[in-house]
What does this fold into?
Amino acid sequence: MKLVLLVNSRASSVTPRARVVIGKALSADHEVTVVETSRRGHATRLARGAAASGVDVVVALGGDGTLNEAANGLAGTGCALAPLPGGSTNVFARTIGLPNDPIEATGVLLDALAGRSIRRVGLGSVNGRYFLFHTGVGFDAAVVEQVERRSGLKRYAGHPLFVYAGVDTWIRHYDRSRPRFAVSFPPEAGDDVIDDAYLTIVLNTNPYTFLGNRPLDLAPEATLDRGLAAVTVRTMAFTRFLPIIASALGRGALLRRSRWVDHRTDLPGLTVRAYGPVPYQVDGDHLGDAEELDFRHEPDVLDLVIP
It folds into this structure.
């Protein structure tokens, strides 16, 4: 097959040695061209160009942000996306069953390519931008923003940095004194409005993320073959919020029965309307603030190499 190896050399786990080893392994059985991202948004343009030139598969070596950009370039085309983990967390690659080590994952990917294990899957979209696994609105996105302000530390202190940023955001960087936005659901999901939201996670897959090897399971029902899931938290009181987070690290029973959490699945879409600008992030990349976010489930839009 004709492949493009799209590399983000600035990603946390991408080393010169890994890049060379992976390139040689892919080239043994396939025609491979290596391209490198140089700025934000570049991976989308590179992936779109690869699809237009008749490439069969874009192999994206980088973090979740790189995968998201590549997916946005390939959605709606006949060129498949093959993730390789190169970031600090690698949520999507691990979600579909790849090892967290990029060289080990390359062996698994080669087996999938040999078996033509490529499947058309659905994605979520928010204001026209596709997402692979989730979009966070509110507190979650404020945490991601603080992590990105310390991006130089991600290579060395990925998960501890997220924990630190979460605490720092709670104390100093997010207004917890009032609800921040309303979430409106379509008739298929109740045709109602939650008007006191502080945090919403809209998921295309589960888990939401990983802390080390432990997944944070917010919506096990979220898969690439079903509609979106939405988890909305309606309190930021410490004594209520902390048990909800602890539940997500376990089996999630409290998360699903708490009166402070709204949990919905198989959604064709939903709308967030903020009481003033609210931060949001897509697949782990902070995209700024917005006052309205329109979510849609987009079925059968991306060819994905599945281990």
Summary: The longest strand covers residues 285-305. The mean pLDDT is 92. The domain at 2-116 is CATH 3.40.50.10330 (Rossmann fold).
